[in-house]
Amino acid sequence: MPQIYSVLALVSGGKDSIFALQLCQTHGHRITALGNLTPEDQHVEELDSHCFQTVSHSMINLYPQLIDENIPVFRRKLIGRSVHTDLNYPERGVETDEIEDLRALIQFAKERVKVDAVCSGAILSDYQRLRVERICFELNLVSLSYLWKQTPQKRLLEDILNVGRIEAVLVKTAAMGLDPRKHLGETLAEVKEDLIRIEEEYGSHSCGEGGEFESLVLDAPFFTRGRLRIEESEVVETSADRFARSGHLKILRVSVKKKGKDNDGRKDKYANEECGEVVWVPDDYVATPPPPPPPTSLSLRSLDIHDDNAKLSPNVEVYLQRMNSSSSDGSNSSNSSSSSSKSSESNSISDNESRTVWLRCKNKANADEAFQELKSALKREGGIFSIEEHATMTHCYLKSMDDFGSFNAAYSRHMRAVEPSARACVALPLKDDISFILAMVLSRSKRIKSLHVASISAWAPACIGPYAQLCGAGAFLYVAGQIGMQPRNLDLESNVYEEARRCVKSCHQIREEICKNNGSEKVSFAKQAVQTTFYASSNRKTEDESVHSVSFKEYCRNHVWDPSEPYCDPLVVKEEKEEENKNTNQDVYVGGENISDMTDPDCIFMREKLSGLFMSLFLTVPMLPKNAAMEIEPILASSLVLSPNSMDEDSYTNGELCFDARTSVFGNFKETGKYIGRVNEWARILIFFERLGDEDGKDERVDVAEHFERIRETYKLAPFDATSVKVYYSEKHGTKKDAEFACRNSFNQLFDKNSSSFTKDEEKKKTRHLSPPTIAIPVVDCGYFGKDNSTTRCAFALELVFIKK
């Protein structure tokens, strides 16, 4: 069942805020209070606010006569100003900013009525949305924004008039094509064609989202007791610019026309006769600042898995990159405790812009202890990296999804809330004494893109908490794992096939949102995705095909955004009786050819490239969040997504991606290696190991040297450019012994200073370099899609990431 919220609706008197709160009611939420911000000087009609509409603000005093008498109206004077005008509002606020008045308004109302969500009418303004979300997060409230990203705006304008049944008049104009003397005081219905025309001619917004006009709602279904009627007004022209005149409507007299049983035959009430009561937030009321994170006192020590003398931490094991120290004569000095050695270590780490760290938390420790231990380990290292400032992608591997609530609460206490890390969360078959594993990509490169929409809307599933839909720094843009949730209520779709469609659509919406104005919205994922991980829950089944097959076909079918597909879900969704899915086992075509007919390796290779699935990893896990059937997690190449103007010049080049694939047999395994990268910049490699012989056989040899040599030859990258090494091992078709052997073997071959096959002499002489820890991740099954359109069943798969230092 959908979560039902008690909502404080922020209202300005305009069409957007009223329509938004009516949509909240449509989705089953209860409006328990209204909130409004008004100029400190009540005689001022309009403020220069970056966030709030104040024209005709005096009309809010009449709301108690218009709406349900059980809904209080709270008002707060805007004492602050638009001080912090950067896009992201800082954590813990800015004392003299107008947003602190918003905080005071919401907290004051929350202390007096039941409120667990806040509704706003933002359509395109990230500036407004992010500020509302910031306050909601700090006050433990949910943001509802059902108008968010509703485009095209002319369709939204039609919905406001026809679905919302809102009667509103223009009370401010400031745009080419709008004349204050002509248009002020006209209803939306009367001026609709002019608004659509000037949008087409001048590129403005027909809903006024660009400040073209402001409106005042006279009547709406939410006004259950009365409606407004303007009796007398005058036009105040504020600019006579011949290209774009501006002005506002000064309302001199207004009446309230009673509705229904409240209409007892009396004359209409005038504003200066009998104003309804509103609840004013005292000017000296200051919202309580959010409490700092609770202090944690721990005596745990991090674990350096590469130091044989290191003692294991009893409850939390933190794995950091080690220092490989070798002098010019090849002697190892990694255990040196001299100050010069420590200084060298710090300098070497500082040269590394990206790294992967991970921890393993045992049952006896809680998540807060684990996060604190990771912070402490990084601080002891020199504080060059921190999870608060540099986390870009976080993988949370839980033993049970029953632990998600407590884990997520701890995660929220320790991770940054502004431009946070992207995140994927799945359950794994962990050892009995392990509660969760956390793997985190840290990047010191400047954030080149962050998309964090915490508001529930009709756009894409909200990230309610300190984790983003997308976070990008350096070479990659990481998309959070997407499950098949309906954006409007965060419930799962009705069946596996609908879940798959929703997953792919959400991935597209997130990618397209960051591609706006770059001319790359409608391109295929194949043009930008450098790796995609598909998770399937072993807890969910289909009658005819595997969950992975459903995800794979849907991804192939819709790897390019369908231009006819609405950007957002409909504002009002009609409940329909669930029918059998008609797309079961439908043929899927890529490049004009049925994928079922592709059996030749070259054809399969081309199919994968065309659909963006060349670098795809299919993992089966015990369970996913909300018991979803699947989760899809793409990684994009930042230089192929963003325009040169949106990135640092040093990090942008026009080089093409370089693909490669290689299959060989070594010992008891068939090895399939897939490579993607850009020469002298970065590379990602997936190596799949399929067991050929008896699973009980003793020949456990694997060899990865040729793959690393391939990296050197093709991408001009050195072994110590590796920033992440992960091994996924299958419970069904592999053994932990296989995985441990692969980890040890790959690590030794990568970084052993005596391995001359792929470590040049001059590189041996480097005084210090870094190597990543190997992360061993147990899964139910792992593999890639083979020629029979099903996932191969591998014993284990190795994932490596190289970024030029």
Model description:
There is one protein chain. The chain is 23% helix and 27% strand. The protein contains 18 helices and 34 strands. It is elongated, with a radius of gyration of 29 Å.
Measured between the Cα atoms of the first and last residue, the distance is: 50 Å
Helix percentage: 10-25%
- Report the β-strand fraction as a percent range: 25-35%
Structural class: alpha+beta
> Rg to the nearest angstrom?
29 Å
**Contiguous runs where pLDDT drops below 50 for at least 5 residues:** 269-275, 295-312, 322-350, 577-582, 644-654, 752-770
Shape: elongated
Query: Helix count, per DSSP?
Result: 18
Major sheet details = 8 strands, mixed
Averaging pLDDT over every residue, what do you get?
A: 80
User: Got a strand count?
Assistant: 34
Topology readout:
Layout: E1 6-10, H1 15-26, E2 30-39, H2 63-66, E3 73-78, H3 99-110, E4 117-119, H4 126-138, E5 142-144, H5 153-162, E6 167-174, H6 180-183, H7 188-202, E7 213-219, E8 226-239, E9 246-258, E10 269-270, E11 279-280, E12 316-319, E13 322-325, H8 339-350, E14 354-362, H9 367-380, H10 387-390, E15 391-398, H11 404-414, E16 422-427, E17 434-443, E18 447-451, E19 470-473, E20 476-479, E21 482-483, H12 496-515, E22 529-537, H13 547-557, E23 589-590, E24 593-594, H14 601-611, E25 616-621, E26 630-637, H15 638-641, E27 658-666, E28 669-678, E29 682-691, H16 705-715, E30 722-730, H17 736-751, H18 761-764, E31 768-771, E32 774-779, E33 781-783, E34 796-803
Parallel strand pairs: 1-2, 1-4, 2-3, 3-11, 4-5, 15-16, 22-25, 30-32
Antiparallel strand pairs: 6-7, 6-9, 8-9, 9-10, 12-14, 13-31, 14-17, 15-17, 18-19, 19-20, 20-26, 21-26, 22-26, 23-24, 25-33, 27-28, 28-29, 29-34, 30-34
Helix pairs in contact: 9-11, 12-13
